[in-house]
Amino acid sequence: MIELLAAALLGIAAGVLSGMFGVGGGILFVPTLALVLGLSQLGAQATSLAAMIPVACLGAWRQHRYGNVRWRVALVVGLGSAGGVAAGAALAHGLSDDVLRRLFAGLLVVTAAHLVASELRS
Amino acid sequence: MARPLPPLFVLAGIGVVAGFFGALFGVGGGIVVVPLLVLAAGLGPKEATGTSLAVIVLTATFGVAVFAATDEVRWGDAAIVGIPALAGTVGGTWLQQRVSSRALVFLFAALLVAVAVRLFLS
After folding, report:
1. How far apart (Å, rounded) are the C-alpha atoms in residues B5 and B17?
2. Do B63 and B38 share a structural domain?
3. Residue B27: helix, strand or coil by DSSP?
4. What is the pLDDT of residues A81-93, one digit of tens each?
5. In which domain, by residue range, is B1 found?
6. CB distance B88–A7 less than 8 Å?
7. Does the structure's ipTM exceed the value 0.95?
8. Do B67 and B104 reside in the same domain of the chain?
9. Of A2, A96, B77, B89, which one is least surrounded by beta carbons within 10 A?
10. High-pLDDT (> 90) share of chain B, %
């Protein structure tokens, strides 16, 4: 029960961050699913993608109203992503959960540095 | 709408990178897609952010399809974090107009680093 509440609160936090900084919810979904709900790293990553779809839909719709979405560009890039998804998923399946978790931890640090750097530049 | 589309191979290439990154880490990949849309496809920063959200809808859908095929997506857990995140997204946009973002960026960056350490040790 506590876990469910904590996961829901972190879900809200992930949404707040994506609304404020444009960083997608995934960066917080994955650790929440792994550390709070006890999924494996691979399971957390796979599940994070599912959680992200409605959030990205809402975000895209809001950005569309500001005139910030180039739909034809998004369509071509999005369709092109299918090839990359197949390769990325194959690699994720090939790595052990420990290696995947450490790579993800590295991504968190890079994202943190990127956020701080872009804030200091603005 | 009448503006010319950037070269298709450039867009498809960005898609491949986005898909690889998204499927490997379970994130939307905005951190690589937004700069690529600006630098390689010539979009403005706001357009790139908005367009990247629309891309993520497709990338995440492909990713979910691939991982669901091997039964790695936990749908109930996706709802536990994803549905609260929808409310958070709206709150984040509201908050963005009312609070200083600098303090929040530093707080968020510190949170990400703390989570990275926790993941690395687990």
Report:
1. 19
2. yes
3. coil
4. 999 999 999 999 9
5. 1-73
6. no
7. no
8. no
9. A2
10. 66
- On the question of pLDDT at A21 being above 80, the answer is no
A87 near B CB under 8 A: yes
Put simply, the chain B residues between 65 and 104 with a CB less than 8 A from any chain A CB are: 66-68, 70, 72-75, 77-96, 101-102, 104
Q: Looking at beta carbons, which residues of chain B come within 8 Å of A70? A: 3, 43, 47, 50-51
Least confidently predicted of A2-16, A33-47, B88-102: B88-102
Q: Indicate the average pLDDT of chain B.
A: 90
Contacts with B, A 40-79, CB within 8 Å: 42-60, 62-64, 66, 68-79
pLDDT value for A72: 96
The reply to whether B69 and B79 lie within a common domain is no
Q: Which of A106, A86, A119 is nearest to B23 (CA)?
A: A86
- Chain B interface disruption, residue of A35, A36, A48, A57, most B CBs within 10 A: A48
Q: Which residue on chain B is closest to A102 by alpha carbon?
A: B120
Q: How many domains does chain B have?
A: 2
Interchain contact B57–A (C-beta under 8 A): yes
Task: Provide the pLDDT for residue B29.
Answer: 83
Q: Are residues B58 and B81 in the same domain?
A: no
Number of domains in chain A: 1
Is the same domain home to B36 and B62? yes
What is the reported pLDDT for A24? Answer: 67
Indicate if B5 and B50 belong to the same structural domain: yes
Residue B107 tokens read as: 């707080």
The DSSP result for A33-77, as a single string, is IIIIS---HHHHHHHHHHHHHHHHHHHHHHHHHTT---HHHHHHH
